[in-house]
Amino acid sequence: MKALKMRRGQGALLVFVFMMALAGLAGGFALGGGETGGKPVAKDGIVDLSGYSFEKSGTVPLAGEWYFARESLRQEAAYDRTVRVPGIWGGLPDGRGGLLPSQGYGTYRLALRNLPADHRMLGIRLPNLSTAYALYVDGALVGSKGVPGVDKASTTPFQLPDTVFFQPTGASVTLELELANFHHRTGGIRSVLVLGTPEQVKGIAFGHEAREFIVLGCLLMIGIYHIGLYALRRKELDNLLFAMLCFCVAGRMSVIGEGLLPRLVPELTWTAAGRLEYSFFVLSALCGFAYFRRTYSKELTRRWTFAACAGACLLLGLTWGVTLLESSSLILLYQAFVIVLSGASLYLLIVALIRGREGAALSLIGVAGFVGTVLSDIFFYNGWWRAPDMVPFGLLFLVIMNAFLISLRFSRTFAKAEKLSAELRSWNGQLEARIEERTEALRAAEQSRRQLVSNISHDLRTPMTLIQGYLEALRDGVISDPGQREAVIGAMLKKAEGLNELIRDLFDLSMLEARQAQMSYELVPLSAWIDRLAENYAMELLTKGIAFVCRTEGPGTESVSLKIDERRMDRVMSNLIYNAIQATPRGGEIRIEARRGARPYEAEIAVLDNGSGITPEELPKLFERLYQNDKSRNGSSGGSGLGLAIVREIVETHGGRIEARIRPEGGSAFIFTLPIAKRMITEELR
């Protein structure tokens, strides 16, 4: 269900992206002046402005049917047809059964009738016209760009939007527009001319220039910002690529539209500006694709980047190696290059979105809007519909999405940094506590080591001193009686056996603590083991006047088996029983009880006595090495204080645990647990 919801969400986002691309195209068409909004339209070369008010209704797009004279410059008899404006003349019927070529010259004518009488001055906003023109009003030249001629040699190309003003001498005026194109693949009027009052026309020019200045400034600032990011962190190459994308689109924008760069650099020729436009067009596509390929590097291989660079180099060489007319005639190659890279960018972003890459959704939305404006731009330059240059606005939309993405990444980075900082503070606190804890443990270990050395030294010094004294007495002849000599030798042997026992206990304890002691496990029935303990110790305890009881309790105990090293577990029981014997007076009682433990599949064995017991202060220290308490000494360990430490290690090696308790009725209790054999557990489960 969760995967289905995720797929539905991704599908909805893809539909939204597709809608954004269509909106970019439709928006470009609408902004291009494809509709006149009910205003006067040119028909048969005449615009009738009867009753029209510029103050109330605004400017008038001079769109519709203009008279056109091919290969004629303002000759009355040559106006033999009408053409749609805006539109290019390439491909129109030539009247002789053929089509007009894109290169050539001609004159457009439009008559304005019934001009409002309250306006003595009017203005016309002229767009970029390919590629040289001269505008006449009632035969008087009011504006021109370049020099239109009848052939390539006599024509000087130049393109810039312009605003011209004229003063009508009556209710009607005639506009004649000489246009020549020998340097570009398309000729004609691709964008509409606008008629209005001087204030309105100036407002249009100012609005276009302000819009381009704002967008251009934004692109340059964002590009510089990303250059700064790259300078601070050279590993982030995607910042450099995004900056180059902003600069390339800004560069292309500066040489088309309002022509900001040619205005700032008058020495820039039309040919150089055109080549810069095509170069920036190619580089924008390359940098944009490289940026997204770098950001989501796992979605497309590097071969795509190499292929894109090779294609860009080929197109750049073509741009600067041939004439602008030849390169503009191959515009479909440029457009195909851009469309392929745009499609590849959309593909990798869709794959990144499906794979859950961070920020892929925002990037995909931004790229979809940008690609929509690129397609609008391509449609415009092919003359398929009338639309302004929307690529800078598409890039601005992409930049906004990228800004959201950067903000998202920064916020998540800060959140992670805050989380890591909090965790680091917590770890530091825990580390300090652990250091303090380990410091205390080291102090305790050092104290234990010193105590161990002291105890071992004491336990070794006493018998060694006695043995040395006995040997000196024998050497000096102090003891001459054979009976006394035998007694002394027997005493020295007993002390030597005690030393050997201490050394053996120390060795066994060290091996057990390191879990390197050799264990010989075998399956032993619990009841049989308890019965054998009763037989081994019953007689000895009877002679000491101490009652001894061994029994198993609880249901199912008779079937319990333990996997133990019986020799070492006998040592555990010997230690605990002799401790109990030392603490229990004549007439007392020692009990061994075995039962199932509180936890499943666990046996519990308890050694109980009603002797002098254990004080609460002794409980935490009983199982420490060399803790010497007369009650804890036993024959097994020679009273070295290692017995209970060895007991604990043997029990834990078997996977059990041991503890000592003070019995409420008096005496002490040593209780340990051992796991029941797995074979028995399997049989019970069956």
TrEMBL record:
Molecular function terms from GO: kinase activity
Pfam families, A to Z: 7TMR-DISM_7TM, HATPase_c, HisKA
Entry keyword set: ATP-binding, Kinase, Membrane, Nucleotide-binding, Phosphoprotein, Transferase, Transmembrane, Transmembrane helix, Two-component regulatory system
Protein EC: 2.7.13.3
Catalytic activity entry: ATP + protein L-histidine = ADP + protein N-phospho-L-histidine
Highest taxon above the source species: Bacteria
Enzyme class: transferase
InterPro entries: 7TMR_DISM_rcpt_extracell_dom1 (IPR011623), BphY/WalK/GraS-like (IPR050351), Galactose-bd-like_sf (IPR008979), HATPase_C_sf (IPR036890), HATPase_dom (IPR003594), His_kinase_dom (IPR005467), HisK_dim/P_dom (IPR003661), HisK_dim/P_sf (IPR036097)
Subcellular location: Membrane
SUPFAM superfamilies: ATPase domain of HSP90 chaperone/DNA topoisomerase II/histidine kinase (SSF55874), Galactose-binding domain-like (SSF49785), Homodimeric domain of signal transducing histidine kinase (SSF47384)
Domain Histidine kinase: 455-678
Transmembrane segments: 213-232, 239-256, 276-292, 304-325, 331-354, 361-384, 390-410
Presence of keyword Nucleotide-binding: yes
Main location per the UniProt record: membrane
Stated name of the protein: histidine kinase
Annotated organism of origin: Cohnella hashimotonis
Lineage of the species this protein comes from: Bacteria, Bacillati, Bacillota, Bacilli, Bacillales
